[in-house]
Design goal:
Blueprint: E1 8-12, H1 15-37, E2 40-44, H2 50-60, E3 70-74, E4 76-78, H3 88-95, H4 117-128, E5 142-147, E6 172-175, E7 186-189, H5 191-194, E8 197-204, H6 210-217, E9 237-243
Parallel strand pairs: 1-9, 2-3, 2-5, 5-8, 8-9
Antiparallel strand pairs: 4-7, 6-7
Helix pairs in contact: 1-2
The protein binds 6-phosphogluconic acid (6PG).
6-phosphogluconic acid binds near residues 46, 78, 88, 155 and 157.
Amino acid sequence: MVRRLKPHVQVYPNLRAETTALARHIATVARKCVRERGVFHFVLSGGRTPKALYRLLARRYRETFPWHATQVFFGDERCVTPADPESNYAMARAALLSHVPIPLTQIHRLPGEVRPLSKAAASYASLIGPLPSRRGSASVRFDLVLLGLGSDGHLASLFPGASALRERRRTVVAVPHAGQPPYVPRLTLTVPALCSAREVCFLVSGEEKAAAVAASLGAPHAEDRRLPANLIHGVQATVWFLDRGAAVSLPRQSWTS
Ligand code: 6PG
């Protein structure tokens, strides 16, 4: 049985402080990875919340982040064209990727426009390659996976109770029906792919997410396997970056800081 480390829960006064701390953390992890292994494998999340983080990385870390040695992936994508305003890639490109010196060949977007969706999922899976089958740090495929959380508890495009949550073999699957807007089909990394991260960082903001955060992190339903976050953990660490609104239903003792 895989030993699961307790998640760290870091609570900040607001989204700005939370984002500042997370940007600093990602830059520190990236530099360490590049120093130790020559590359940083970074999985981006979609949705609205990370936009401020991406803008900050582009602004404050343009010169000091090892972009030349960073390989960018995506945790999920809405099945639209890459220029569509609903595209996670379009958001990340506009807020971050078009402003930093990262070679285009190091940006690996999920092909949301490819049909059938099974073909799109299979092509991203072959780009990721097979997951290392060994234990501990030898099982790492990605260095840092960034995730958000929906008010229903979904992460990437893994929705509570969805059959995609039970996928144990494939690394990427198509999700024909999204549980929250935009109601377009999705492509998503699966539980084993997300858990092949050395570190998973959640970025969650706002009181409307508080119930989902508490359900994902605490009793009484911590073992509820229909809740995606109960299944996701990094090989070395899982860190939740929250603002006070998102943390409002968590017991104070569960905060790490
Ligand atoms: C997506 C996502 C999704 C997102 C959450 C939170 O494509 O929608 O990647 O998992 O992270 O829905 O989204 P917000 O930050 O917009 O609340």
